[in-house]
Each structure stands twice: as structure tokens, then as C-alpha cells.
Amino acid sequence: MLSLLRRITQEVTAAQSLPAALDIIVRRVRRAMRAEVCSIYLVDVNTKEYVLMATRGLNANVAGSISLKADEGLVSLVGRRAEPVNLEDAQIHPSFHYLKGTGEERYRSFLGVPIIHHRQVLGVLVVQHEDKRRFDEGEEAFLITLSAQLAGVIAHAEATGAITDLSANAVPNGSDFRYKGVPGSSGVAIGRGVVIFPPADLDVIPDRRTTDFDDEIQDFYQALEAVRQDIRRASNRISQHLSEDEKALFDVYLKILDDNSIAGEIVRKIKEGNWAQGALRQVIQAHIRQFDRMDDPYLRERASDLRDLGRRILSHLQEKAPNIAERFSEPSIIIGEELTASMLGEIPIDKIKGLVSVMGSGNSHVAILARAMGIPTVMGALDLPYAQLDKVELIVDGYLGKIFTYPSDALIENYQQIVDEERLLEEEYEVLKDLPCETLDGQRLSLFVNTGLSADIARSLDRGAEGIGLYRTEVPFMVRDRFPTEAEQVAIYRQQLEGFAPAPVTVRTLDIGGDKALPYFPIKEANPFLGWRGIRVTLDHLEIFMAQIRAMIKASADLHNLKIMLPMISNVAEVEEALALIRRGYAEVKEEGYDVKMPQVGVMIEIPAAVYQVKELAELVDFLSVGSNDLTQYLLAVDRNNPRVADLYNSFHPAVLRAMYSIVDQVKDEGVGLSVCGEMAGDPMGAILLMAMGYDVLSMSSTSLPKVKAVIRNITLAQAQYMLSEVMALSHAEAVTQTMSRLMREANIERLIRPSKTTNVA
Q: Which of 248, 291, 325, 387 could make an S-S bridge to 303, C-beta 3.0–4.6 Å?
């Protein structure tokens, strides 16, 4: 069964259109189950009716033109129940409804299973027999398994309007195709898309229209010849160690590259309008799918040979291509399958209008960086046909997590009004820069910033930041191809400390692992978020930890504004060990003659174990900072980077709010500083609740700071405490956000944080 399921899924995935994919399903399932009828009904999103989209056994001429109402027939019964219906004689069932013109009257037995994707019923897969007999458990299990496998394929094809061949007519402007993702960074961006991708990865190469056929073909042939030469050199180097049969494998590689086979197909694709890299991807993937469907294991293995050749050709093509920065002549919307911090680092910031990532969630590090830079961003757009969106006009709605392709003039006009209103809000924020963050009744709240880039310094100071609550040292580690030296680190940290002196700068020790990888220090684990990360890595590598500690302390010479923060603390022993090493590093630097003071040391509270030991931790350190991002992730057991469960990640979950409140209660008499440096602090709604709980320092991205200040300066502490008392009794995260939205509207402060038109756009 597994091999049959795999072959059917592969064929469906390779289909060039949704109708073709559906036809493959009904044809293959009918044959596999020896059924007389196999049909697929899909739900019309507008009418909620079940439309007969494909069939083998019924009258195929009526497919696409007849349907069952949402409460009509056995098919809709399957959809309403969201579970299989298996009947020996369908026609005597009270829900049976005959669809005229299908020829269904002959068939008695009925098995229908729902096609479900992310809790949504997309349609129903049906098999039927003429005689009266119940389908057995094995047949039912097969159909359920196949339905689950195909649900994602059908959902993607529906969402993207089905896969279309590049040579098909271009989609006209004004189509307003809408795709849903996860809000990553608020704001609206209107502009052309630019698809970016990691090098030498054939699977992520986008389609891109070209009219320079001759140049693309010439580049392709040059890459082809370079690969031929590579293969000949490899053959000559090791030929003396190979038998004649083994040497013949190199000849096979050269034959695959022959003009009359694959190379000729690629040239034809280029002449049809695709650039060389896109044409290469199309042809290589089509041949790989053919090999994968073969029963012979030897022939299936040839797919890996073809994939290797494709990557080799691609690598040579990319050597001639302009680098990523040269592709941007104007500000654009950056699109990628999985955007990374290093990708963004290669693009001039002034050329980035918006970001769209197919993978990731609102709390991925790319989203956090986007918020820091004030770039509208949508993450987790799983059904977006990103490879087809190079140079396509787009709208990115970072408030609602939506992307519109080929937008109409009317939609562009609506969103342009939001952009204009955002600009007015920014002007209002400008006057707040030098004013204190203080409530109407005199409660003072300190607003710090989270940084990781040198460019953050000026931006943060311009927005009135009172210090740095979190400097992410992993960022300068990530943009290099080796560990930075101690001297290099001193220069990096000195820049941050000098930029904010005499205000405090909290520098976090290296926090890698989980979703933060160093290319030169890979950590491969089955469950990286519960593995080797944060303080666990650095305590295991004293050479890394001590170099960093000494660099931080040296960088603070004469300034004395350094605070050191330890990430991912899960027990008291880790803190005791780290403190001993920090004192040792301080003594070493002091002996070298630097004018330094022992820095304050604090820990991040981001693991549930730390919440329950916060009192003991407070007795050891000078300050505590709650990392609400990871604390939310670990309390809710939700990977914050996984778009499939992104809707479960919510910092306003009652469990998170209660944990945050309990931390304040446990350390109120300990005399330690207490702050929040997660994304919750930069959410005006979250800032109100945190202030009411008793946190007096909030650290956030520089773009969030003016919004938080505007809100805090327009309410009283008493109002904030009333809001907190109202939501702490609630049992649903949605109820918390809805209640807070209502209370903020009643207090007339919601208008300060987002354009009023955002709720009125489709």
C-alpha cells in the first residue's frame, strides 16, 4: 500500500493543473480499489456547495457543472460529520439525493471520506459499486490514508489557482488573488516582488520571464560545457582506480547532457519565455518525477544522478548571475521560501519595502528583525505560489497577514490610504521622542530596545530609547564564516556601549541552537529546541564563553554601562558556574590594566523551570529579564517557527499571563531589577498588562517604542490595572485580546497604534 500511495501522491504533485490532478486521483483510486465509480466533490468557498469536479464511472460531461447543497445528499453528510460514511445500500439512506444526469442510479454501495486540511473540509472522495455490499475496513482505511495525503496537495492547488505552465497567458492585473499567512511585522507595502533563494538549490529556483533568449541560451550552453569539463576532469583523476564498467558511469553523465535530450528540452523552455535557471529546474524536476515513479529500484536511483547534474549546471549559471544586491534598482517586496537573517543582510535596507516568507511564523527571527527595521512582513504563507511572483505587483498587509497578487486599482487605492495614515501616525510619534514614558497619573515606565545590528543604534536613539535591554550577540556571529576573534568582538560591543553611554547596555551571551544556527558550527539534533542551545553550548565551550566575556568587559572600559545576561537558564547550577567564570574573566581583564568595573549580571527567564525557581535565581543575580517569546513557546509546547501551529502560539494565553504575573509576585521583595525583553513588551496591548503586573522596564524593537509610549502616556495606571483584572479571569487567549481591544477602544487609545482603515480592507 505504501508504494502505491507514494506513486499516486507523486503523480498528483507533478500534475500541471488542478483538473489534471483530480483526474489522476479518480483514475488511480478507481483502479487500485477495483471500484466501478470514483468521484471527487470539492467545496465551493462562496456557496458552500459540493461541486462534482472529477469522476470515473459517472457521466464525466457534467463534472464542474452540478453540485449538492451544503445540507443535501450523502456527500454533504460526510462533509458535515467530517468523518467517513460507509453504506451497503446508499439509496435507502434518508440523506440520499440523486444528482440528475450523473448516471448514479445504478450504484448501491457507497464509501465517502472527507478531504480535510488544517481542520477545514475541502471536499469528499467517493467510491461506489453497483452491487449491494459494504466496503471492508482495509478499503476504508486505504481511502482515508490517501485522502489525508492528498489534502495538502489539493489545498495548495486551490489556493494558488492551480499550477500553470509558464507559457500560458499571463494573469491580468486586477485579479486580486489573496493568500493568507501570519502577521510578521505590522504595516503595508505596495510594490513589485523579487524572489530570492539560497545558491545551488534547484528546488527553490523561481520562474522568471525573459525576452533575452539568446543571452540565456548562451549562458546555459557555457554552464553545460563547464559541467562536461568538470566530469571529464573527475573521470581522468580517478580512472586508474576504476574498472571499465565503473568508468562508463561518467560516459552516462555526459550522454545525459547531450543536446538532443535534456539540454534540448531546456533550450525549448527558454525560448518559451523562462530564464535559464527556471527552465533548468522545470526540465530536471520533470525527469526526476518520471524516475521516481518507476518500479525498478535501479532506475529510481538514476533520479539522484540527474539531481546532481542539475545542481552542477545551476552552480555554474549562478556564477555568472549578478549578486543579490545588484538585482534591486528600486525598493521591492522580497519573497522567499524561507527567508533568513543572512539573506536580508545581503540586500540594502533602503531597497526592502516588504517581506514575504512561505515558511516561518510571526515569531521567527526574520520577523523579529523585520519589526526592528519597521518592514511590513507576512510569514507562513504556505499556499503562496512564490516561484511565479518575480516582478509581479503585490500588496503585503502585515496587520492581517495577507498578500494580494495582481491587485486592482481599487484595492491599491484602499491600501495606499492606509500607507498615508501610517505616515501621519509616524509624524505624531516624532513629538514623543524626548518625552518620558509616563502614565497620566505619574507612573514611570522605562523603554529600552532590543538590538543586534549596528544600524539599530541611531534608529533607537532617534526614537527615544533609554538603553539597550537586549543586545543579541549571535547576530555578528551569524554574518561571519568563522567565530569572531576576541579583538573583533571588543570592537563590536564597544560600538553599542559607546552609542548609548551612559545609559545601560545589556549584552546577552551567545544564544545559538534551536532556530539560530551558525553555518560554521552546525548543531544537528532531532529536537533542537529541547537540546543544545544557549548557555548549555557556551558552558560546554569555555573557549567561546571566556573570549566573549573578556571582550564584553574590555569593551566597557571607562564607560561602566555594561550588563551581562545569560540565556536559556534552567537551573541554579548553570548560573553559579557562569558567575564564577564571569568573575574570572573580570579579574583577567583587570590584571591587563583596563579601567573596568564588575558588570551587573542577570538571567533570562524563558524556561518554565526558571519560573518556578525565580526566587532562588533572584538571590544570585542583579536582574531578571523575561524572554516572553521562548517562555510562551515552552509553556504552550508550540514551535514558534512552525506555521502549522502558529495559531496556537499566543503570548496572551492565560497560562502565559499567569506565569508572567507569578514572576513579579515571587521577586517583589528581592530587590532585583525586573524587565521583559520579548515581543510581548513591544505590543501596546502587552505593554499595558505588563506595566499593570509590576514590570517597570520593557525592551522592544525600536519601531515598537513610539507606539508603546503613545499608549502609556494616554492612560492611567489605575486604568491599566483595571484592564489586567478584567482579563486575568478569562480562560481563552482570544477572549483576552477581544476584551483588551474593547477596553482600549473605550479608553480612546486604540487609534494610537494602527491606522483606522486596516479593519475595513478586504
A: 291
